[in-house]
Design a protein that fits this description.
The structure is a homodimer of 385-residue chains.
Chain A: E1 20-21, H1 34-47, H2 49-52, H3 62-76, E2 85-88, H4 91-102, E3 108-113, H5 117-125, E4 129-136, E5 139-140, H6 142-154, E6 161-164, H7 178-191, E7 194-198, H8 214-217, E8 223-228, E9 240-243, H9 246-260, H10 266-277, H11 281-306, E10 312-313, E11 321-325, H12 332-341, E12 344-345, E13 347-348, E14 361-365, H13 371-384
Parallel strand pairs in A: 1-12, 3-4, 6-7, 7-8
Antiparallel strand pairs in A: 2-9, 4-5, 8-9, 10-11, 11-14, 13-14
Chain lengths: 385, 385
């Protein structure tokens, strides 16, 4: 496996033979509901082919939007009007649209430190300047956020938006606490700043605690929330959704029309509507949670039983990632190179920092690795440390 | 049919009962190869499900890229290296990526007058300032382009790119002549400006004449060319491609990675590879050309036999559109309203102009209208004029 990412080679999740790769936060293809998806696509191509193969409405396929609204109402108790939700080609495309619509090259934005590295690269592509607010065990530190916003204000700068992954964050696995959520909204309200809540892991919850979304707590129409079928069904569908205040969603639909050429993936959307309307999504998520919870538990137990003193790690209540902090003096890049020799792969933490990189973190993605390989990989990593 | 476009309602191509709509440049769903696509998707979901449903390589599915390279070599005699082509979610998404990567908010760009209105809106969304160069019967007037570039240079402005639809243009149906193509490239070379060649209609050729693409004539690695399956198979696949100099394509792949979340539509791409590798695309395009050539011929004959003196129109050698010029004194918006009463629908020309709108043009899209309805619609339109 190349250390340097080669865009032409793309994702090579498994690595060379004999290796164990914690690199990519990919869903395990063994979990894909192939038979049910096959049936859904067969139905769509047979019964709704002309609709599925034509340009779709810019908001996305109506029945799938209605299914998502009903699901939010049922599971989160929130009532959404139809113009408050649209389909997207996944959360990355949603974020790309929001950057085009709600920011201009040269603008400042607020992100977490660490944050999802692909989002940070997207912000860079849009010419946005990211101010990174440290994350602790309760998520983004809202006290430090206020300090930073004050600093910016003194310089005449108002950020275009706050980008947060509040639940089972990529890369840290950390969840923003309920108290911090309220604090974050209060700050955003006082300063009149938009919040983008990237929430693609929320359904992969391994504990019973449920914290309300920023979107559901928002009283001032300033939160946009992303969801996605990539983690809960399959990334290849290229399908997600955006929820938010009606006015913003209408603007995004208009802008999406231009950049998507008319509606997010009608074929996938109509197939997913058929799949979801059969009641297949809910039991599938239950089975996914079993698979990934086991991997998380195995990983945390392996870390507990093997890691030397001075190494610490997060205990994610959901999602795909555990974030390791090395003891002082150990550099993540050195550890990565040493692990590579033993055919153990993961990402060093630096690309997840928009400002000062920390040389002391590793991201382990456990979603793609079978439990026995997790144990073997962590044992080898511990031996290096 | 609403006059004002409602983004939540989306495309309503057919209009109310009894109406004839020349509004949308949609492929006729009767042409969709439903049985063959069904077979292709069935094969993919059965045999390659885990690949098709996972994140794909950022360049797009390799075998489809290789098929497209082979097709370009066979049909246009041009040899492309693999890193010179990538897949996209259609030409609009390709253009969106290019705007993000090759321009910055506030930049100037060059477009044609008229040009595709959705592209013009996309440029506006990106904060780009479009300078519109008039199109005559040979395409963009390169003399006027030089004058305009001189004006800009005096003001210290160098445009980020020239956006052109040189072949069977939307909305005019006009094709840039061979001589003008060379002139355009010469100007771009002298001024060191990038050219974006939006070429999604090129396969729908109704005459034998074939003019080399700007991309094939380019000797200085400054032309990026878009293609799409939307017009030649089905828009719902959300799949197209981008060709260009290796360095630019590599940059686009990296930037696309962020905004697409990993590879254009793997499911559609693998299905299209299966479809194309069976040799199904070429005969399908032959049959499409018959369908659409007939509609063009019927439309041109109807215009010829019914339109009063003073009305003129383009004679497209391919594509989906005929562009009407009204006699002095007639306003396109008035004609549109009068036609609406008779349930005849089309677009007035104004949204196709980035700068001074002309109130004297109508765009007729003939791709979606059966021949007998074309005759009926034009007869009614002529009566109004």
């Amino acid at each position: 496996m190349k250390t340097k990412y080669d865009p032409l080679a793309g994702v090579q999740a498994a690595g060379p033979p004999g290796s164990i790769s914690f690199v990519y936060g990919l869903p395990d293809p063994e979990t894909f509901p192939l038979r049910e998806l096959h049936a859904a696509f067969e139905f769509v191509l047979k019964e709704k082919g002309e609709l599925a193969l034509q340009y779709g409405p810019n908001q996305g396929y109506g029945p799938l939007i209605d299914y998502l609204r009903e699901r939010i109402r049922r599971e989160e108790g929130q009532v959404l009007e139809r113009p408050q939700i649209m389909l997207s080609g996944g959360a990355s495309q949603a974020l790309d649209h929001c950057c085009s619509l709600f920011a201009r090259s040269g603008d400042s934005i607020i992100v977490e430190a660490p944050s999802y590295h692909e989002s940070l690269m997207l912000f860079k592509n849009h010419g946005l300047s990211a101010c990174a607010i440290p994350v602790d065990e309760d998520g983004m530190n809202t006290k430090l956020l206020e300090v930073r916003l004050n600093d910016l204000r003194v310089r005449g700068i108002k950020p275009s938006f706050i980008y947060t992954i509040p639940t089972y964050q990529n890369p840290s696995g950390i969840t923003l606490s309920g108290k911090r959520r309220k604090a974050l909204l209060k700050i955003a309200n006082e300063r009149d700043v938009l919040i983008i809540e990237d929430d693609v892991y929320c359904d992969l919850a391994y504990e019973d605690t449920k914290i309300p979304t920023l979107f559901s707590l928002d009283e001032e129409k300033r939160v946009i929330r992303f969801g996605s079928f990539s983690k809960i069904i399959a990334p290849g569908l290229r399908l997600g959704w955006i929820m938010g205040p009606e006015k913003m969603i209408r603007s995004l639909i208009r802008s999406g029309l231009r950049s998507m050429g008319g509606g997010a993936n009608p074929l996938s959307a109509i197939a997913m509507a058929a799949y979801c309307q059969k009641g297949l999504l809910e039991p599938h998520i239950v089975s996914l949670k079993q698979v990934y919870k086991e991997r998380r538990d195995v990983l945390l137990a392996a870390l507990e039983s093997t890691m030397p003193t001075g190494v610490s790690w997060t205990k994610p209540a959901g999602g795909f990632f555990v974030w390791i902090t090395l003891p002082p003096g150990r550099k993540s890049e050195d550890v990565k190179q040493a692990a590579k020799v033993k055919k153990i792969f993961f990402l060093a933490g630096d690309p997840f920092f928009a400002e000062q990189p920390s040389a002391q973190h590793l991201r382990l993605a456990f979603s793609y690795v079978p439990p026995d390989k997790i144990q073997e990989g962590i044992k080898k990593l511990a031996a290096i440390l």
